[in-house]
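Repro:
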Amino acid sequence: MSIIKESAGVRPLPAELQRKAIDELNEVPDRVPSDIAALREWLLKQPHLCCCLTDQFLLSFLRGSKFSLEKAKHKIDRYYTLQARIPEVFNEHRLADDAQVLEIIRMGVILRIPLDVGDTGPAVTIIRAGSYDTQKFKFQDIIRVGSMFGEIMMLEDDNANVSGYIEIMDMAGVTAAHLFALQPQLLSKFSAFADEAMPTRQKGIHFINVPASFESGFNSLRAFFPAKIKNRVSVSSDPEAIFECVKRDYLPQEYGGSRGTMQDIIGQMESKMLSYGEYFEQSHLFGANEKLRDDNSANIDCQSSFGLDGSFRMLDID
């Protein structure tokens, strides 16, 4: 199938992002094709891995590893290995046309904020944590849709690949039921996956509209994140705090901005998700088969940050 075996080339970066990739990610534009070829060649020799081999997919892992080929090998192996250890998220519902996925998109739980052309800052996503019905959806369902957009972002968002991304957690409307639904162990496991396996780099998690009475409790959420991410978590009850994270002009009208409405963003996101129908269908063929792993050739420690029993072990971030 083409998405597994064939290369479609890579997008050229805008000039400012290219300069940033050179300065911060050790990217050498003339060497990118040979770097991609070297990573692909290694992957094809791994009997336990079946993975996407397109140029853009592999380039995202090289950029996420600052063009260290060994780190890219390790990260892409983790990417498929750890997915199997989070079956609540990576399962048969992870399809672009899945009714549950589309319903969550249409509720506006997750909003990807478009940036201006030429902006070299991190990609921005707003997660409206209080906007879903806990009687109908589990926290893992929200994480699943978020993971799908994270993968789309990895494949096509140059800002995310070069400058990383931030998440704004809007806690307006959050109830006790939403807090009980958070599933701390899943949050910890997925945080480990995002850090250890995703090539895009998380630059910050900002909780806004946190009820003042809950603010101290939300500060304890830092305990679930790796060491450096703890310092990138902010918690505020001030509704104006969002403007410290993202330019007002980028936001929809409901957040005090001028760039259309949330419904405009939701419509764009649904169309984007549906355009990835074939990709997510074929992604069910990807994965790691531990029975086929050749430890001598891979030289990758298979112990994850979850430990043997799935419990979370804290990580350091490079």
